[in-house]
């Protein structure tokens, strides 16, 4: 049997959790893959990020994976439909490698601009020569599927020894013991404190006090640095959202550079204004987690007096009944026809990740909203049964 036949006949695995790691997948060994046999598995291409996150949250060796190399076939290029043709190739590498900045370590010639510091262990993302890496391929034959090829699944250096995490004795007391970056939760918390005007000094003082109270650092978030918070503060201060004096140009420039966070976009046309739907990956996760069999509410008041265009926030409620904004819609005019289109896009985005996801109800705070359209929308789009709660 040919190798590609074997690969393409493997089941596409999609564990029902928000993120998943290699431990939750069944791996196949396919013969004839180079000299050594690599482990391969198929997952939906839309869930590659979930796999990368799950793999980073490895309990025995927490880390982060970055894109070390990526090749994409240009969209307009013509190609012969070969069975092994590749649309996209992405090489993910453990962020503690591949270079080795430890004493006596090897750094690739293209990266020799790095000058070792006196105390390299203090660097937040010190490279320690980790060889752990995997490849993601998107095949022309099955573009909705990602083929994962795990070349090296152990977090070891070239000598085969643990080079970070609890098993590496030399990393004790440094960030290399934990993941190389702070968690997304803490990052967002720091950002929101900075946005409401809390100073860098206050954030760091509160942080050090709480770490001290618990008797010293014991996870990656405890190692939050002054430098990191200051850098976030500077990037907020310097950011400008008026990229061009023409709003249409400005918006399309912003959309171009934030594609991962835009789930719906229609620019100004002759008859209609623009509609922009924004959702970060974290927000999508919260929507999936707390929106499933829960309520989604639309809040049109939040921040309206500060911005040039009205913004509508969609929120879900966590277990403490606190509202979490899970998406924003910005448009000069809210019309029911537009609402149907962006809701559809949002629904499709959620269903790519979780086909079973279902809302229990939709709350609208704006009495002028087209109630009939929203009722139809909730009934058909979200498959809500008539006895379920629809509050408008
Ligand atoms: Zn590693």
Automatic annotation (TrEMBL):
It comes from the Eukaryota. This is Uncharacterized protein. PANTHER family: ZINC ION BINDING PROTEIN. Residues 105-126 are annotated as: Disordered.
């Amino acid at each position: 049997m040919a190798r590609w036949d074997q690969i393409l006949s493997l089941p596409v695995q999609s564990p029902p959790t928000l993120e998943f790691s290699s431990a939750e997948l069944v791996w196949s060994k396919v013969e004839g893959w180079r000299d050594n046999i690599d482990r391969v598995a198929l997952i939906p291409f839309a869930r590659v990020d979930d796999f990368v996150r799950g793999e980073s949250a490895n309990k025995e060796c927490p880390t982060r994976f970055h894109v070390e190399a990526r090749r994409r076939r240009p969209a307009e290029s013509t190609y012969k439909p070969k069975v092994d043709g590749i649309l996209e190739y992405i090489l993910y590498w453990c962020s503690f490698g591949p270079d080795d900045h430890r004493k006596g370590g090897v750094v690739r010639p293209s990266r020799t601009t790095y000058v070792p510091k006196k105390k390299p262990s203090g660097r937040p993302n010190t490279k320690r020569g980790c060889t752990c890496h995997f490849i993601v391929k998107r095949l022309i034959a099955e573009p909705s599927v990602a083929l994962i090829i795990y070349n090296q699944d152990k977090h070891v250096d070239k000598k085969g020894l643990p080079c970070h995490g609890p098993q590496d004795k030399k990393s004790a007391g440094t960030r290399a013991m934990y993941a190389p970056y702070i968690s997304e939760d803490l990052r967002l918390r720091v950002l929101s404190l900075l946005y409401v005007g809390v100073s860098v000094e206050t954030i760091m003082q509160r942080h050090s006090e709480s770490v001290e109270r618990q008797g010293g650092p014991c996870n990656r978030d405890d190692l939050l640095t002054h430098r990191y918070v200051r850098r976030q503060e500077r990037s907020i201060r310097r950011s400008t959202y008026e990229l061009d004096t023409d709003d249409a140009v400005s918006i399309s420039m912003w959309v171009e550079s934030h594609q991962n966070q835009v789930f719906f976009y229609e620019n100004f046309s002759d008859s209609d204004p623009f509609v922009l739907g924004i959702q970060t990956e974290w927000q999508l996760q919260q929507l999936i987690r707390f929106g499933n069999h829960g309520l989604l509410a639309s809040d049109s008041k939040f921040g309206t007096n500060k911005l040039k265009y009205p913004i509508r926030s969609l929120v879900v409620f966590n277990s403490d009944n606190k509202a979490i904004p899970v998406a924003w819609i910005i448009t000069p005019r809210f019309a029911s026809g537009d609402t149907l289109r962006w809701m559809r896009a949002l629904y499709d985005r959620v269903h790519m990740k979780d086909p079973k996801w279902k809302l229990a109800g939709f709350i609208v705070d704006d009495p002028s909203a087209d109630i009939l359209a929203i009722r139809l929308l909730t009934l058909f789009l979200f498959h809500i049964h008539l006895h379920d709660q629809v509050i408008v």
